[in-house]
Amino acid sequence: MRTDSSPGTLPAREHLPATDAGTPVLDVVIPVYNEEKDLRPCVRRLHEHLTRTFPYAFRITIADNASTDGTPLVAARLAAELPGVTGFRLEQKGRGRALGTVWSASEAPVLAYMDVDLSTDLNALLPLVAPLISGHSDLAIGSRLARASRVVRGPKREFISRAYNLILRGSLQARFSDAQCGFKAIRRDVAQVLLPLVEDTGWFFDTELLVLAERAGLRIHEVPVDWVDDPDSTVHIVRTATDDLRGVWRVGRALATGSLPLDRLTRPFGDDPRDRDIQDVPRGLARQLVGFCVVGGLSTLFYLLLYSAFRQFAGSQSANALALLVSAVANTAANRRLTFGVRGRGGAVRHQAQGLVVFAIGLALTSGSLAALNAAGGSPAHSTELAVLIAANLAATVLRFLLFRAWVFPDRGAEQGASTAVAPPAPQAPAAPAGATAVPYRPVPHQPHTTYQTTQIRADEAADAGWRDATLRLQPVHPHDNDPGDPR
After folding, report:
1. pLDDT tens, residue by residue, 306-354
2. 89, 278, 310, 332: which sits with the fewest CB atoms below 10 Å from its CB?
3. Distances in whole angstroms, Cα of residue 432 to Cα of each of 437, 456, 460, 462
């Protein structure tokens, strides 16, 4: 996962205005690899559906990532025959690489993709992109696991899909229901900020994108879909599942260490009720209480285990001090990240120092309780010591939460809101990456005077973060253009 890019402030969501017919509002990308059999019926069916039902101008981009069969020739013919169809070829495989490169190069305000097998019913396409056009949501996904979805597939794929989503929920706290459905859309302004942070170039690409978007507080809209399994799918299930699990581990580690600058991905919602100044309602108190209780319960268990271990070779006071010190450091770090949402390393030393002060107060309470117990009972049983320590820790926990909230991690939302209200940068003229060349395909026999305008990108350029931020206009060359050399 890329951590060297600093995301900027996202603009406020706005309804996309109707534009001229020549400017596409929606760019539907179809990533393909050796799909000469299914590509033509897929594109023709999608083009007919969009022409008949979609109220805005659109474009269909065939993202050919290093096909070795007749897929490039089929794509060339489709681009020559159908208006609004264009192509893009990369010389290296990877669905994520193809999507990231084409989305970064597209000027359409709404970007979508779907699998070439068209397993998802196209009637869900307009409901998918409508919340993005209206400004309601930032991303949209088709869900096969929603209650209203109607899905036809075998038990093996059903089990794998549900198990994978359970893993995402348990390990990455993902709240979206279906990460693997090949039917997704994103606003271009959001994609430009998120794509530089996504590292995966294969099948885990869109899952990683969704997790980052959700952690950044962006809104993800889900659409129930009708979906029929493709029995001829070329996806290697075992290899894909293994790569996905590796991706889950990598993303989870990056989120746990706070190495991603997601806290800087802010969007001025404007009418978000969480932004309103409501009197006598502490901001985020309920969520912080839940997080603090979970961290506190785990810390108490950790503390008791440490105390029992240290008690084997030390006295009760020494064992208590050592156990409380180690658990206090872990508790402060966990509350900093999980309860109060402080990411990154800035201020970590100061927070730990303040946490040690809070630890000293807790030490005084627990040590005083042990001293009183020893004075009263002489040599109390180990179970009695644990009971007294639990009661003392409960009292220290309440005090710790109050000190954490008011002193160690105070709410500075108002100050940050005033300092981070930055106007979005003015758009600049797009520039193509160095080394990008327009390579025409060989004219097809029945269309001797038409060419297929595509762009060939080296793998190192496609993976470069700078290229991801560049914008390159992709326009089809139609047979009816007056000037065959017009680069539109």
Report:
1. 989 998 888 888 888 888 889 888 989 888 888 887 877 788 888 889 9
2. 278
3. 9, 11, 15, 12
